[in-house]
Amino acid sequence: MFTTFEVSNADDCFLGKTLLANAMVEETGAHIVSINGPEIMARKGGESEANLRQAFEEAIKHAPSIIFMDELDSIAPKRDSAQGETEKRIVSQLLTLMDTLKPSSNVMVIGATNRPNVIESALRRPGRFDRELEIPIPDEEGRFEILQICTKDMELNDEVDLLQFSRDTHGYVGADLRQLCLEAALQCIRNNIEQLDVEKEAPLSEEELEVLVVNNEHFNHALQHTDPSTLRDNKVEVPDVKWVDIGGLEDTKRELQEMVRYPIEHRHLFEKFGMMASRGVLFYGPPGCGKTLMAKAIANECGANFISVKGPELLNAWFGGSEANVRDLFDKARAASPCILFFDEMDSIARARGGGGGGASETSDRVINQLLAEIDGVGSGKTLFIIGATNRPDILDPGLMRPGRLDQLIYIPLPDHASRVSIFKANLRKSPVADDITFEQLADVTDGFSGADITEICQRAAKNAIRDSITAEIERQKRVEDGELGQEEADALPDSVPCITRAHFEASMSKARRSVTPDIVAQYDEFQAKSKEQWDTNAEEGASLYDFDAAAAEQAREDALMEGLSEEGDIPAGDDSD
User: Fold this and answer.
1) Measured between alpha carbons, how far is 181 from 148 in angstroms, rounded to an integer?
2) CA 26 to chain centroid
3) Nearest to residue 411, comparing CAs of 285, 495, 505, 305?
4) Kind of pairing, strands 280-284 and 107-112?
5) Which of 430, 465, 473, 523 has the most crowded Cβ, counting Cβ within 10 A?
6) Cβ–Cβ under 8 Å, residues 222 and 197
7) Calpha distance 167→176 (Å, rounded)
8) Measuring CA to CA, which residue among 152, 532, 137 is closest to residue 332?
9) What is the pLDDT of residues 485-521, one digit of tens each?
10) CB-CB neighbours of 150 under 10 Å
11) What is the enclosing helix (H) or strand (E) of 142?
């Protein structure tokens, strides 16, 4: 079965760097000398350097040849950070051997590593490793070609669309795609194992193996059980949240789709109009209005990778550790682009700088500085979108909310009447509700309630119905035990609580509470008024909110007024003070 699918072990994975070096050896026909870090290490002093010299002598003797050093960082770390003298001597020996190679020796040295920043700096100069080639994470076209190679010997159903799967595997490297195909093949074997006699010693015939055909269901199963290897440290299981799970906020949903989905699905239009995609958005509003749920829904809808970060997770007890955590987080997000980086409760790590004091305050300032530097350093070729959520926007650092960073500020207010109806429908879409109560009636009596408050009302009403149903079942069983009813008669009785009734909702509303007070709403309205400049124009209803001609005329009137006051002596000429 494994031979049919050409499923091989991990040594044959498409790792990229090592495979590229091996392919070049096959194409050129040169002699290959492979050096792996642990193989040259020896117990006695001087033997490790001798092993390294022996490898170079063999390459020179059989020239033209290629010396391939896999995992170069393990044998050539930075000498100032090396822990033992052996590592330092090996690095010095390697530098000497590479300097002794002459251009006419016909020997090429190739190194491969996934940690270039820990390699000795002296190796990365012209004359030694003078060419540095980055093997990036494959794009959509590259993933499609890799999938074609991985599945060339597999029996695929005609409905399998490898191009679509290449679009759904953002951030996958070659080994991840190999594992995806392996998991799909294994799932195909699991589904057809009952039709195969795997207990017999004789190999299966070709007629028996014809049932092993991989289809879309097998690949979809594999997608659910494989993740990009670059995100395994930070991968978060995103709940299956969709737009239908979020009631109301239609304008916010549309704006989010334009900001997040358009740069991913319509990048060519952004290039056509010479526009950079927005880097981030900040959700702010009262607690329980759906900020976190909105971020998870947009990540699910657009199909991008999603990393959720809680503020305290980035903090470290050691000096510089918190900033290093921020850098590593952004490096992984860029490597897995397109990616959505979600900071929940952002006020916990991005408070305004210069708060005074020492210790924790200085650490917070350094984390903010690193966070701002990373947001500014997001490359134009990487699709990385940052979402922050907070219910305290007034204490955030102003530099975080300037244009070019989290420049889109979206206020998620308390739901209005139409939004409350949608929230009730979303929460109760799987629940049976009696005809004596309507969603409009529920929305009428929940003015000022947040989305979380409405969800609590629905859950408590369902809990009341469950309690009544359990009580009725106990009473029915008691009648059976007393001999009033037979078991068959009791089972034939209609359901006493078939749905959630008006009485259940009334009992739930009697314990309901508003978690957001009018004072809290007033604070958000005040912040919203400060964050947006209000233009006083004479535009008619339905016209644009900003008119260039009206603004220019207003500026001309102000200039004329200032010139008149200056001539009268009220304001000294040339005084630039405000």
Assistant:
1) 10
2) 39
3) 285
4) unpaired
5) 465
6) no
7) 14
8) 137
9) 777 877 778 888 888 988 999 899 988 888 888 888 8
10) 23
11) helix 140-150
Q: Which pair of tokens denotes residue 211?
A: 């049932």
Three-state secondary structure call for residue 500: strand
Cβ pair 284, 149 in contact under 8 A: no
152-166 confidence digits (pLDDT tens): 888 888 888 888 888
Task: Write out the two tokens for 88.
Answer: 């330092």
Cis amide leading into 398 (omega within 30)? no
* CB 56, CB 98: distance < 8 Å: no
Q: ∠ at Cα 282 (279, 286), nearest 5°?
A: 170
CA separation for the pair 423, 343 (Å, rounded): 25
Q: Which residues pair with 281 in a beta bridge?
A: 387, 408
User: Which residues have C-beta within 8 Å of that of residue 492, sequence separation ≥ 6?
Assistant: none
**Tokens at 276, concatenated:** 């950079």
Q: How would you classify residue 416: left for phi > 0, otherwise alpha for psi between -120 and 50, otherwise beta?
A: beta
Query: Which residue shows structure tokens 């207003």?
Result: 554
Kind and range of the H or E run holding 69 = strand 65-70
Cα separation, 399 vs 527, in Å, equals 16
Strand, helix or coil for residue 360: helix
**Structure confidence at residue 461 (pLDDT):** 92
Q: Inform me whether the pLDDT recorded for 353 exceeds 80.
A: no
Report which DSSP code applies to 273.
T
For 177, phi then psi, to 5°, come to: -70, -35
């498409």: which residue's tokens?
14
**538-544: long-range pairs with CB below 8 Å, 24+:** none
pLDDT tens for 554-576 read: 888 888 887 776 666 554 544 44
**What global pTM score does this model have?**
0.62
Listed in order, strand segments (DSSP E) in 311-467 are: 339-344, 384-390, 408-411
Average pLDDT value for residue range 218-247:
72
Query: Helices in 160-289 by DSSP H: which ranges?
Result: 162-167, 174-192, 206-209, 216-225, 250-256, 262-265, 267-272
Q: Residue 293 carries which side chain, given as an amino acid letter? A: L
107-112 vs 65-70, strand pairing mode: parallel
